[in-house]
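Exercise: predict the structure of this protein bound to 2-keto-D-gluconic acid.
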Amino acid sequence: MPADKPEVVLLGPPKPVIVRGLEAACTLYKAAEAKDRDAFIAEHAQVRAIACSDTAYKIPGELMARFPKLQIVASFGVGYDHMDAKWAAAHNIILTNTAGVLTEEVADTSLGLLLCTVREFPQAERYLRAGKWTERAYPLSKASLRDRTVGMVGMGAIGQAIARRLDAMKVPVVYHTRKKRGELPYRHYPSLLDMARDVDVLLVIVPGGAATAKMIDAKVLEALGLDGILINMARGSVVDEPALIKALKDRRIMAAGLDVFANEPDVPAELMAMDNVVLWPHVGSGSVHTREKMDQLVVDNILAWAAGKPPLTPVPETLFTSWGA
Ligand code: 8YV
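Solution:
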C-alpha cells in the first residue's frame, strides 16, 4: 500500500469538501491549477489514485493508461459514463461513483420536473410575472397526473425512489428494464415500444453510455403518442434529441421535461423557443446538502483505498477483490 501520505491527483474543479478532505490525509496534486495538462500528467504519472470532482471530466482508457500504477479512480456522480469502466476492469483499476447519497434528492427533482411539465407550472409563473393574470386566469392545464400511467425507463435505486413517490400520489407505475425485477410490485415490460404504446408518460432514469444511447428514438416517441409526455432525468445521450425536437414541433407528443441534454451546457435553440417543454440545467442532485455528500463520498472512497480497505461504492464493472501490490 502507499506510504503514510499517499499521493492523489485531482481532476476537475477543486471543490472545497474534496480538497479539504483529501489534503488532510494525502498529498494532493490539482490538475485545475496546472498550466500544462500534459506536463502535469507526466509529472504525476506514478500516482495510484485519482479523484475526479465532475462528471463533465472525461476519463477514457488512454488517460488512465498514462498512470501505469493506477489502482483507483474515485469520481463524483452516480452516473459514470464519463469513465471507461470496461477498460478499467481489464486493467484492474477500481472505479467508484457516488451511488446512494443522491438517490432521494434526484427522486425529489424528478417529481418536480414531472409535475412542472404535466401541470405547466413554469409557464403559469411566467404568465403571472408577465402581468397577464389581471387580464384573465391562466388556462387550465391540458394534462393531469390524475389520468396517467408513468412508464419508468430504468428502475435502479433512483427509479424505485421515484416510483415510491408516485405510489404515494396514487399514480400507476410500470417499467421497462432489460431484466425483470421480480421483487418489485410494478408491471414489467420487456419491450420499450410496447410500454410506450400503453403509457402516456415516459420517465427516463437509466445510466448513460453505449448500451442506452438514443434508446428514446422517433419510434418510441411515435408510440408514446399525441398525449405523451417525456421526462428525461438520465443523460442527454439516451434521447435522440433531433427526433425529440421534431416530435415536439410536429406535436406528435404533447410535452417534454428535460434536466439533461445531448451537448450540455448547450441547449438547442429550437427547444428554447418551444412553449411545451420545461428545461432545467442538470439540477437533479443540485443542492448544497447533496452535492457535499457526493463530494465527501469521493473523499471517503480515496481514504478507504489509502487505508487498504475495500472501496465504499465501486461501480459494478470493477468489483473489488484486493488492492494488489
Ligand atoms: C450531477 C449526475 O448533477 O450524479 C450524476 O450522475 O448527473 C448529477 O448528480 C452531475 O454530475 C452534474 O455535474
